[in-house]
Amino acid sequence: MKKYIVIVTILALVIGFYIFRNKPEVKLTDNKIVTEETRLQLPEGWTLSENGMVDVQFEKKVGSGIVPKIVFKKSTSQEAQNPAKYVDKLIAGAKSTVTSYKVVTDERTTADLGYLAIIKANYVNNKQKIEVSQRIYIIGEEVYTISGSYTGELGNEVDQIIEAVAKDKVGK
Asked: Which domain holds residue 22?
């Protein structure tokens, strides 16, 4: 009788381990993607993609060339307590990293709830002009950055998604 109990216990452990170890992660991810895409009402062709370096990333499927992307990242920085200086450092960092980076518009506002910088820029990559739309929300030491990079005439779509992400993730 003890043999049967030991065999059944070992068998149950092996089966349990196999079931829990091989959970269908893809299906969970698919459910998350559908939920996020549906909730934000993304324009046609835009999908949620995985990137461990940011909180959320969207891409637009294109036939060839540079893939348009929008990323959202929430971070914390003590330097953000001086928001104008913090945003200036971010822009300076972008300019030093990408020598062709050029700020086209830089609009900043301060409200009771925090600081907002809306930046439009561009740079050249392999002789192709890349447009950048960015919003940086700073509330105390919390920094919410939403950035979109694209080519061509996708500005309206990118701005629509950035607006939806801002409302969903920042509440603004």
From this structure: 1-40
Query: How many angstroms separate the CA atoms of 32 and 46, rounded?
Result: 15
CB atoms near residue 162 (< 10 Å): 20
Q: How far apart are CA 87 and CA 71, in angstroms?
A: 17
Residues 91 and 126 in one domain: yes
The reply to whether 31 and 91 lie within a common domain is no
pLDDT of 95-152, one tens digit each?
999 999 999 999 999 987 799 999 999 999 989 999 999 999 999 999 999 999 999 8
Average pLDDT over residues 7-34: 46
Give the helix/strand (H/E) hosting 38. helix 25-40
Q: How far apart are CA 113 and CA 105, in angstroms?
A: 23
Closest alpha carbon to 120 in 68, 79, 155: 155
Please tell me the number of Cα atoms within 13 Å of 130 on its side-chain side.
19
Strand, coil or helix: 169: helix
Structure token pair of residue 164 = 């939806």
